[in-house]
Amino acid sequence: MAKNLELSFLVEIVLAQAGQTLGVDIESMASQKLAALARREGLGDSMELLRMARTGADPALAAAIVDAVLPHETHFFRDRALWKALRNEVLPTILSRMAGRSSPIRIWSAGCAYGQEVYSFSMAVAELWVNTPGMSVEIVGTDISERAIGRARSGIYTQFEVQRGLPIQMLLKHFEREEQAWRINNAPRRMTRFARHNLLADMAPLGMFDVISCQQVLPGFETAKRDDVLSRMVGQLNAGGLLLVGPGDELWSRAHKTDLHSLVSPWIFQRTIVQRQVA
Amino acid sequence: MSMGPGGSMRKCLIVDDSTVIRKVARRILEDMSFAVDEAGDGQEALERCRKSMPEAILLDWNMPVMNGLDFLRALRRERGGGSPVVIFCTTENDPVEIAEAMRAGANEYVMKPFDSDIMNSKFAEVGLI
């Protein structure tokens, strides 16, 4: 019974703080993902940790719990088909269309976890750069987790991480070895900026974007919150800007058909050129 | 699933002097639907290639008799030796050495230790799955 109270509390704080729903077998997930945090806090196990957080004495503890249970798994150039379309068609088109624009081309990786997608964009842009000199590109990575953003900002990845999705020639070109890890070079790094941001919060301070990528983030949201996030995200897209979603997310995105139309692949949407009227 | 043009399973030759590594790599590659053959050094691998050229070669660097780099250079000079996709799989992780392997004709490079995610990623990168 007490255990049910702790697990309900976990479901509640994850929904309230991150808008995410937890899957089945929450007890086993909690025991696996919260064990390390419980140890760091000097507590016996995940249930004891949740019991402590439920007292409300330490709000930071609840935030740390939410951070620990949210997924941060990602890799470079995740979804090969999407990146093939981006590198061969979409990004070259955008770069040439916007050549000569005085303001920078802005790309947002929403829910960027450890930043692999942000650097995938910066490496892809750097490789196309030679044909579009003088262009300014800013790639913004945001995540709800301060810990994830810290790692993303460091630009340092383990040997395992750099071998998932990253071709060896790109590793040689854009990274330097640092002891047993690999650090992204300055050229692709200069285009990037990272900030902690909760997708449930106001997106306006982030500014407007030409490309917004939201991969593998939407499925975790509770339905009403997902629709709200998607709708506000579309609002941050410049007219003609692109929304990139993950496989499976296209159904939800299609619901915004007055604002978006499918382009190149089922997971790449373009915002219609006519801006929506603000009420 | 890795199938050749005629619908037959693609063949991958694992070249490594460690039986443990060969066993682990074989399990992963068989799960990826490759027909797997093994060789314990570069010389043995070259003889196998002369009999039947595989579609892919997973190649260690430091081996007795003939090392991976010498094997790769010899392979690329053989008749039909330009066709196999060669993925180095070694503990060598210095960028200078990796670049040397690529110049010698490797198509991709795996730094040990590896797991099935890395193998899948690298074989997909070279278009074999």
Briefly note the structural class of the backbone of chain B.
alpha/beta
Strand tally of chain B: 5
Overall structural class of chain A, as computed from helix and strand content, comes to alpha/beta
Name the poorly predicted regions of chain B.
none
Strand content of chain B is: 15-25%
Inertia-based shape of chain A: globular
The general outline of chain B is globular
Helix tally of chain B? 5
Please give the largest β-sheet of chain B. Answer: 5 strands, parallel
Helix/strand order of chain A, N-terminal first: HHHHHHEHEHEHEEHEEHEHEE
**Strand percent estimate of chain A:** 15-25%
Largest interface: A-B, 14 and 18 residues
Radius of gyration of chain B: 13 Å
Oligomer status: heterodimer
**N- to C-terminal distance of chain A:** 49 Å
Helical content of chain B (DSSP H or I, runs of 4+): 40-55%
Query: What is the topology, as strand order, of the major beta sheet of chain A?
Result: 6-2-1-7-8-10-9
Treating each run of at least 4 consecutive H or I residues as one helix, how many helices of chain A?
12
Structural commentary:
The complex is a heterodimer of chains A (279) and B (129). In chain A, 43% of the residues lie in helices and 19% in strands. In chain A, helix 1 crosses helix 4 and helix 1 (2-18) crosses helix 5 (59-69). Chain A is built from twelve helices and ten strands. Chain A is globular and about 60 Å long. The longest helix of chain A has 18 residues, at 80-97. Chain A has helices at 2-18, 26-33, 35-40, 46-54, 59-69, 80-97, 116-128, 146-154, 168-174, 186-189, 223-235, 250-254; strands at residues 105-110, 137-143, 156-157, 175-178, 181-184, 192-196, 209-214, 237-245, 260-263, 265-271. The mean pLDDT of chain A is 88. With 279 residues, chain A is an alpha/beta fold. In chain A, the strands form two sheets. Chain A has a seven-stranded mixed sheet with strand order 6-2-1-7-8-10-9, with helices on both faces. Chain B is α/β, with parallel strands linked by helices. In chain B, 40% of the residues lie in helices and 19% in strands. Chain B is built from five helices and five strands. Chain B has helices at 19-31, 42-51, 68-77, 95-103, 116-125, and strands at 11-15, 35-39, 56-59, 85-90, 108-111. In chain B, strands 2-1-3-4-5 form a five-stranded parallel sheet, sandwiched between helices. Chain B is globular. The N and C termini of chain B lie close together (6 Å). The mean pLDDT of chain B is 95. Classes of the chains: A alpha/beta (279), B alpha/beta (129). Chains A and B meet through helix 9 of A and helix 4, strand 5 and helix 5 of B.
